[in-house]
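Narrative summary of target 7.
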Amino acid sequence: MAPILQRLFGLFGAHSWIDDTNIVVRRYAPKLHNWPQDLTLRVAMLSDFHFSEPWIGLQALEAIVKKTNALKPDIILLVGDFDDGPLFSRPVPHDDWARGLARLQAPLGVHAVLGNHDYPRLIKKRHRFLAAPAAKVALEKVGIPVQVNDAIQLTWNGKSFWLAGLGDQCTEFSDGTPLADLDATLAKVSDDAPVILMAHEPDIFPEVPSRVALTLSGHVHRGQIRFFGFAPVVPSNFGRRYLHGHIVENSRHLIVGAGLGHSGLPLRFDAAPEIVLIELGGQA
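Modeled conformation, tokenized:
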């Protein structure tokens, strides 16, 4: 029955079961004023897995990994929300999906930040900060570093750049202090090499200084369920301002991916699951 429903849903642009047939590769080649043109970098961004059976389980993950590796990225960035699948689902054990993600291949490795669904919930949908939530433990166990308000310097073809990872913006310490600390994150950047910032929610973007070459986010799922191109529900304080795609404000650049899995209802309508591929540098 599932394959029949899957084909029927696909006719109407709807996706519940994620597999190789409905994952879109979305490509961008932004011209960034503060990214050196001789620093060519091929970035694959994945977000919002919400691992759960039967919607996005280990078989779907195998298709995602295969499709991502075939793009031959130089670096792979995982931008949060591994946990907390939709209604009518069964969770996939952390160690199982982490081992699947460990099969992603890129010369500069795989790097991650966490999202709001990777932290335990409290009342009013607030989240409590844990130094080692289960998703972080599982990722680091298989050798995928997770950044929380941190930045690391990487070198590629003799050129260096910074990869910064912001703590989740919906998550708070027990005293109500926000976990996300943009100033502390960027304070880790110690020279003038270009910066890529991973931030699960795009809402931080108005605060991101022009010092950052590119901000990468997920979280909003392109609305997940859209009617005639309109997304009635967007989990952002800015509504549809940062819904999807390449957004430029005051010469600052943001790319928001549609993500892969589901939140709430196990349905994506006119918001196909996607892998984001970004080509930096090398432009005339």
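DSSP finds five helices and 17 strands in the chain.
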